[in-house]
């Protein structure tokens, strides 16, 4: 059980910078912190195709400061980090699929952007504490299930490699320059405020869109591949507890769910919750088969023991809240189905 008072404790007046705070996870975090009285600054470049959305922070718009800047902008970051007590570093290239055709953006945003942020902190505010959201993809295919933090890291793409590099960069600034940090490796997160324009990342949310639209969810192979799907509010709990727990400093933690769900169970639950849509099996393409890492789910015993975090929301409850949100705010998220590369050409 999460200690509620620890979760809510003492955010009043705390100065917090969230990179990527207009996106899915960042905006849910910004809202929670702003509601608890923190002084939240968001740095977000609103990169087309990613999850940045003005509507995401509508409920707290007057209580947060937004800087529409790129984390690779050294002068901007030098300024933005000053006086912050906590920096949640969530901005970056976010899609494995996009990294296959454009690996340069991973290097630019995820590696260079992280170096720019950490250099700014080293020079202007080394006392801030950093919480970084890496990915379970840093492990690559699971050698043993569930996957714990001691598992080898054999990432299968530039998205994952660049996240591992960002993690190592932040660790370096901790060991060499004393900047305290906590490194999180997130599983698949789903819930309100994620982008729903395309299916280049965020598979659970994409299934939700298909079901709401009464379309067909395609399950590759026999639908039996296992994953862990974590509701975004639980992810936000983990970020906040990581920031506030002295014992977490310098640690790497998985943030996931320790009982897996098959893609078929996910699709069936979504269809039951929405009351629309259907699913069918689809053969793997050769490319997809080569990329598919197989079963993966997280061992979360380390974070549970160290900072007392664990998921609180069942898959069904999380999906019900997600479907409710998107039914209510559909026009803010559906957008056009232009492919990311087409929208890049159009920009
Ligand atoms: N959502 C998941 O399932 C998941 C899983 C593992 C890891 N993560 C990590 O969590 C973080 C947040 O992901 P999300 O799902 O909220 O994605 P998102 O796309 O919704 O949000 C990312 C935000 O970062 C901003 N951004 C990207 N590059 C930027 C730059 N150079 N400068 C300033 N802003 C920039 C985007 O505009 C966007 O608003 C990412 O680092 C992602 O890799 C997410």
Q: Could you describe the 3D structure shown?
A:
This protein has 347 residues and is an alpha/beta fold. The chain has a domain at 7-198 and 231-256 and 297-312: Rossmann fold. Helices cover 42% and strands 16% of the residues. The strands form four sheets. The protein has a seven-stranded parallel beta sheet, with helices on both faces. It is globular and about 55 Å long. Residues 342-347 have low confidence and may be disordered. It binds nicotinamide-adenine-dinucleotide. Nicotinamide-adenine-dinucleotide binds at residues 20, 22-26, 43-47, 50-52, 70-72, 90-92, 94, 109, 113, 133, 135, 186, 188-189, 194-195, 202. Nicotinamide-adenine-dinucleotide binds next to helix 2, helix 5, strand 5 and strand 7.
- The quaternary structure here is single chain
Gyration radius, rounded: 19 Å
Instruction: Give the termini distance in whole angstroms.
Output: 47 Å
Largest sheet: 7 strands, parallel
* Overall CATH architecture of the domain at 7-198 and 231-256 and 297-312: 3-Layer(aba) Sandwich
Bound molecules: nicotinamide-adenine-dinucleotide
Low-pLDDT windows of residues: 342-347
Secondary-structure element string: HEHEEHEHHEHEEHEEEHEEHEHHHH
With strands numbered from the N-terminus, the spatial order across the biggest sheet is: 3-2-1-4-5-6-11
Describe the global form. globular
Indicate the percent of residues in helices. Answer: 40-55%
Count of DSSP-assigned helices: 13
């Amino acid at each position: 059980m999460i200690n509620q008072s620890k979760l809510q404790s003492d955010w009043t007046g705390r100065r917090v910078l969230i990179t990527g705070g207009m996106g899915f996870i960042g905006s849910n975090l910004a809202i929670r912190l702003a509601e608890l009285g923190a002084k939240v600054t968001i740095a977000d470049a609103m990169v087309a195709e990613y999850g940045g959305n003005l509507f995401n922070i509508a409920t707290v718009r007057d209580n947060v400061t937004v800087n529409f800047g790129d984390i690779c902008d050294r002068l901007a970051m030098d300024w933005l980090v000053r006086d912050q007590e906590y920096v949640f570093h969530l901005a970056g290239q976010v899609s494995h699929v996009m990294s296959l055709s454009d690996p340069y953006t991973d290097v630019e945003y995820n590696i260079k952007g992280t170096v720019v942020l950490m250099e700014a902190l080293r020079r202007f505010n080394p006392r801030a504490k950093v919480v970084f959201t890496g990915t379970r993809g840093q492990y690559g295919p699971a050698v043993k299930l569930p996957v714990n933090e001691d598992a080898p890291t054999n990432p299968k793409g530039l998205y994952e490699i660049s996240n591992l590099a960002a993690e190592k960069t932040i660790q370096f600034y901790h060991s060499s320059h004393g900047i305290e940090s906590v490194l999180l490796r997130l599983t698949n997160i789903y819930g309100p405020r994620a982008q729903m324009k395309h299916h280049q990342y965020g598979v659970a949310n994409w299934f939700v869109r298909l079901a709401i639209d009464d379309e067909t969810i395609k399950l590759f192979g026999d639908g039996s591949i296992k994953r862990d799907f974590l509701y975004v509010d639980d992810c936000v709990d983990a970020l906040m507890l990581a920031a506030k727990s002295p014992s977490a400093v310098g640690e790497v933690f998985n943030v996931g769910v320790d009982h897996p769900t098959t893609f078929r169970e996910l699709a069936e639950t979504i269809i039951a919750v929405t009351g629309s849509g259907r699913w069918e099996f689809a053969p793997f393409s050769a490319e997809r088969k080569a990329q598919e890492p197989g079963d993966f789910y997280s061992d979360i015993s380390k974070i549970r023991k160290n900072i007392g975090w664990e998921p609180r929301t069942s898959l069904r409850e999380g999906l019900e809240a997600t479907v409710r949100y998107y039914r209510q705010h559909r026009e803010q998220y559906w957008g056009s189905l232009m492919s990311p590369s087409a929208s890049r050409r159009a920009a």
